[in-house]
Amino acid sequence: xxxxxxVLTSGGDAPGMNAAVRSVVRSAIALGLEVYGxxxxxxxxxxxxxxxxxxxxxxxKMGHGGTFLGTARLPEFADQEVREKAIENLRIYxxxxxxxxxxxxxxxxxxxxxxxxxxxIAIPGTIxxxxxxxxxxxxxxxxxxxxxxxxxxxxxxxxxxxxCSIVEVMGRNCGDLAxxxxxxxxxxxxxCKETGFNLEEIIENVTKSAKSKNHAIIIAAEHMVDINELAxxxxxxxxxxxxxxxxxxxxxxGCPSAKDRVLASEMGVKAVQTLVETDETGVCVxxxxxxxxxxxxxxxxxxxxxxxxxxxxxxxxxxW
Length: 320
Ligand code: F6P
What we know:
By secondary structure, this protein is α/β, with parallel strands linked by helices. It is built from 11 helices and 11 strands.
């Protein structure tokens, strides 16, 4: 039976991570557990930077962006010896289970720990929305709203100057941020892994939009195309002069949206309930729409999330 649990945030920070930690801490205490915060993700686990958390430790954290526990990327956690040292530190505190909040890399770490006998449950915290099995990851909604707000501002200036704005958004290998932003701002073109990059189609769409509008917007997912090179093509081959903007890390910051706070709260409770009421380990919590469920981490890591992006792309194309 679980008595002491650890909680950590790992990988790229996401708005709503604090709300998730708060939920884990509060619900664990309500169910009679001791909770320990592990600083800077797996790095803090390896270095033994662990402290007891109380109700008060998570007061007034809900609405803050970032993660007060800190986060890090630790590729070395793939090494057995690194994990063994981390597990030794968990044993020192008597921690029998860990809730890990993060993305793909965090899930892999949780799975590896589970295979070494530590009970783990992962919560999807990433702006990328790239975890299979869950409709939404914590942070996606806030990042999307940040991107939309930024593009709305860019539209003002591009309309005034009769320009085409090319905006690069994050998402790692997932097109969700790009496609949702593109729909929400009424963009002319969207470029992401799932839909590919077709220069001729872009030139055609932008040229067409120049007939009825005084601006055009292209949303490009990161790692897909050199946006400066694309701007050169658009400027040379369409009536619009093009300008580029990389939204970058601004998408990871800011107060979490109400939707992210609620999702984080629901997922934190589900993670703790799962640890207390079942023997499940190496699982993650997922937003299935109506309910928050659990799924083996392997399925989340190896699943394919392309279909919902392509569905959104159909909507995008209908509205253009
Ligand atoms: O996973 C979140 C994310 O912001 C991705 O969208 C992006 O590709 C990556 O992290 C950037 O990582 P780093 O913080 O290591 O630069």
